[in-house]
Every structure is written in C-alpha cells, then in structure tokens.
Amino acid sequence: MVEVVFLEALSGDALRVGLPASEAHAPERSEAATGRVPAVVYLWGIQAPRPGQPFGTEATVAAGRICEGKRLRVAARSAGPEGRITGSVVAEGEETSERQDVGRALIRLGLAWQDQRGPSSAQLRSLEQEARREEVGIWQQEAPTPPWAWRE
Questions:
Q1: Distance CA 134, CA 129 (A)
Q2: pLDDT tens readout for residues 96-109
Q3: Strand partners, 2
Q4: Mapped to the 3 state alphabet, what secondary structure does 104-122 carry?
Q5: Which of 6, 54, 95, 144 could covalently link to 138 via disulfide, CB atoms 3.0 to 4.6 Å apart?
Q6: Model pTM above 0.85
C-alpha cells in the first residue's frame, strides 16, 4: 500500500496522483527533488464511461469529489511504463476514520461497470447488480453502452 497525493481525476477510472519519489523508478526526474513524481492510477476492476460518453463527465466529477482533500492509499496490482499503475484506491478522511474504496463507490453510484474484460471481484459484480436494480447513474438508460464498446 502506497500513500499518494491526489492531483486530478482524468476520467471516472483514471486518477493523476503524486507518487512518492521513493516509489517511482525514475530517480533522474527533476520532480524527485520535491518528493513526488506524477503518475496515473487506473482503478482496478472497473470501467467508467469515457469523456464524451453519457455519464462520462459525471463519473469524472464523482471520482474527483471522492478523492479531493483525502489521503489516498493505492494497492498496485500492476505497473506499466511512464508511471501507469493499475490498482485499488482507498480514500481516507484526514480527520475522520472514513474510508472509501473509490472503484466500489463509483459502481455503487451507477457511474462505472465492473470490468468484464479481465479479472474482477464478486463484490464489484454484486454492487453493479444493486445499482442496476436501483436504476442509478448509467442504469437510468435503457441500454447503456460500456466503454469498451463505445464508439464516438
């Protein structure tokens, strides 16, 4: 588990964060002097609507709202080139004991699908089914198009 600094939500399932320089494998970067290196964390197990897709903006705003002003802890499942990380992200309140898994929260709000293209969890599938039954977010649409099938 690595603590990161939230910078911005790029989409509902991608967050730009400040990674501790000790965790980054790029000591030559000038940002390392400040102690943080920019990275992008893709939320494991979910796919949110793309920008331009119905509910894409809402998913991005919700991800930002969940993370803003919180301490973020990332459990990386994989790391790729140029600071790309896939992992679970937990947002913790600074003064409270409130903890929220960002991916699960987005699915609960009806602003993401559990990712059917790779491994997922029973809990994510269950949360998606609940959001479908309650017709929240994307599930208000008659036939929502998942992001992996979206064509602009």
A1: 9
A2: 678 899 999 999 99
A3: 74
A4: HHHHHCCCCEECCCCCCCH
A5: 144
A6: yes
